[in-house]
Write a structure and sequence with these properties.
Layout (H helix, E strand, L loop, with lengths): L1 H30 L4 H20 L4 H5 L1 H13 L7 H21 L10 H26 L2 H6 L9 H7 L9 H22 L6 H20 L7 H8 L5 H7 L4 H6 L1 H5 L14 H12 L4 H13 L2 H12 L2 H12 L2 H4 L7 H21 L2 H14 L9 H8 L12 H29 L6 H16 L4 H16 L1 H13 L5 H19 L7 H18 L2 E3 L6 E3 L2 H19 L5
Antiparallel strand pairs: 1-2
Length: 590
């Protein structure tokens, strides 16, 4: 009965979405508003998705979670700066929590997908995203300069805002020698992936060394495809506007003065661009490199690229822990290394460092909670606390991660509930102690001269307010294109496929997947990030990739445990191919 009601409710959602679809279509016919046809297509796709979910027979708790989710989105649209509306997303999480417990009690799951199903989903994702990108191209050429600004196509000779302000040249692609080097690099990476998939390479040290090499060398290979070649890395990092952090670090010999006057002077500087919306740690990071390592911008870019390449390590250990599969851990890390997140966007700026610290925090929190390790949980808190000095917007992640580390399945039984709650509260306390310790250490290092709250309010005033002037009507649907750009359609398709296949690999993996879905939904739909959403998706990949890797698993032949499907190498190759196409056709904007 609970499953039947859940299915009926999703069919009702499909009818509602289809009704909105028809309304927008008739509005277009009568009034010809610019985005009505696009919104029509969006709601038509939503209606199809709701039907598919209904056919999968979700339980009623999961179905009810949609109501507060949509309510929260609506109120965020009306008043984006009212953080109190996160309470609706909290109610959504409670319904998801209830759905998980009910499934744990009934042990009802959809059957795992058969051989070849992953291919169908991945190619479907590629097809849908290609159609979406084609629509974006039409809007770029014929409709909206707002999109042209954030989706500059090299094939049209459009050079983008980095050319205008930072002197980075994006001509029509002609760097075929660089493309050849990239193809050779990718061939070597795929060959290594096949060795791991076949079991010929199985040592953890060898796998990690190969992953780090692939992630780091790929950044150099992809730079060779740009108009400026390897000089592209140097030009990106020293730009005064788009990647302004190195620029200010090089001009701040007295870092103490810079920190003391950050909010009142530097953060308010009218041409500081991304400085307006961030804390000062990224400038401190580059200042440390300039002061203690090298004054060369290229050296700073290579150091930054190597540190961000190390992100494959927590990806590997996190996914291996969740799935119990060394190969799944390898392919999760490899998928990340082959996305534009790593290959293109992590040689300058600050988002690559935020991604690294986010996945490191996530791995330490999940593994530490499972092993009841106070030290790992404390280290997780320290990583998160440091990360909050790189980016203000990561604070909501705590709510989802804290729910990940609770053993929900305990509440399906009749005993141990109070004990589990107390254990969970203790783990949360340790993580928060680590966060507080990080803030205390940084406060002492800055000699108490930096006011975090003042800087946050300044960012809210100067940066968030500016983004909210951009039309939400565009970014309510164009968010998907940024997601496809920086997470890639193959990984996105696997992420979605995981929730239709529903393999209960472990209860911990299932909890992680549900909270990852909730996190992506909240960040995707909350109307704060307009046009700059790729920056948000860079660190959201920490939640997406492990779930995508789960979809590559299938029951072993003896029905004991799970093995990695042969399609894993193909998915990695498609992810790499998409990154190549992006570098060839779309100008790289930080």
């Amino acid at each position: 009965m609970v499953y039947r009601l859940g299915s009926y409710l999703f069919f009702l959602y499909a009818a509602a979405a289809f009704a909105v679809c028809q309304r927008n279509f008739f509005v277009y016919i009568s009034e010809m508003p610019r985005y009505s046809l696009v919104i029509t297509a969006v709601f038509f796709i939503i209606s199809i998705i709701m039907i598919l979910i209904g056919l999968c027979r979700p339980n009623l708790f999961y179905a009810l979670a949609v109501i507060p989710a949509v309510t929260g989105v609506y109120f965020f649209y009306l008043a984006p700066l009212k953080m109190a509306y996160y309470v609706f997303f909290g109610i959504m999480l409670l319904f998801l929590y209830g759905g998980f417990i009910y499934d744990s009690m009934k042990t009802a799951e959809a059957p795992p997908a058969g051989r070849g199903s992953v291919y169908k989903w991945v190619f479907s994702g590629l097809l849908i995203s290609s159609a979406g990108m084609a629509a974006a191209i039409l809007y770029v050429n014929y409709a909206d300069p707002e999109i042209l600004w954030f989706f500059p196509f090299r094939i049209d000779g459009y050079k983008g805002n980095m050319n205008w302000y930072d002197g980075i040249n994006y001509e029509v692609f002609r760097e075929f020698s660089g493309l050849l080097i990239t193809i050779l690099y990718l061939g070597a990476v795929i060959f290594f992936a096949r060795l791991v998939a076949s079991g010929k390479v199985r040592g953890v040290a060898a796998i990690i060394a190969g992953l780090v090499a692939a992630a780091f060398l790929g950044k150099i290979a992809f730079s060779l495809m740009t108009t400026m070649g390897i000089g592209h890395m140097e030009a990106k990092i020293k730009g005064p506007l788009m990647s302004t952090y190195y620029y200010w670090a090089a001009r701040s010999p007295d870092i103490g003065e810079f920190i003391a006057n950050y909010a009142s002077k530097y953060q308010s500087y009218h041409n500081a661009a991304h400085l307006k919306g961030h804390p000062p740690m990224q400038v401190v990071f580059y200042w440390l490199i300039i002061t203690h390592v090298s004054k060369s911008p290229l050296a700073a870019s290579l150091i930054y690229g190597f540190i961000t390449a190390l992100g494959v390590i927590p990806f590997f250990f996190l996914t291996r822990h969740l799935t119990g599969s060394l190969k799944a851990g390898f392919f999760a890390a490899l998928l990340y290394a082959l996305t534009p997140n790593s290959l293109i966007m992590s040689v300058a700026g600050t988002e690559g460092m935020i991604t690294f610290l986010t996945v490191l925090f996530l791995a330490m929190a999940v593994i530490g909670a499972s092993k009841n390790s106070v030290w790992l949980l404390l280290f997780a808190g320290l990583c998160f606390g440091l990360n909050t000095y790189f980016h203000f917007g990561i604070w909501p992640l705590l709510m989802f991660v804290f729910l990940m580390i609770m053993k929900w399945e305990v509440f399906a039984s009749g005993t141990g509930r109070v004990s589990e709650l107390l254990k969970w509260a203790g783990k949360v306390f340790v993580v928060l102690a680590g966060v507080a310790a990080a803030h205390l250490i940084i406060w002492m290092a800055f000699k108490g001269t930096f006011d975090y709250v003042e800087s946050f309010n300044k960012a809210k005033e100067l940066s968030v307010g500016f983004m909210l002037t951009r039309p939400y009507e565009i970014w309510s649907w164009a968010n998907f294109f940024h997601w496809a750009q920086y997470i890639t359609p193959p990984v996105l398709a696997l992420f979605v496929f995981r929730f239709f296949r529903i393999p209960r690999i472990t209860p911990e993996a299932a909890r992680f997947a549900i909270m990852a879905l909730a996190m992506v939904f909240v960040q995707f739909t909350a109307s704060l990030g307009r046009a700059e959403t790729h920056r948000m998706y860079m660190y959201l990949i920490a939640f997406v990739v492990p779930v995508a890797a789960m979809a590559l698993l299938r029951p072993a032949e003896n029905n004991e445990g799970y093995s990695l499907g042969k399609e894993a190498v193909s998915v990695a190759a498609m992810t790499a191919a998409y990154s190549v196409l992006l570098q060839v056709f779309v100008a790289d904007l930080l």
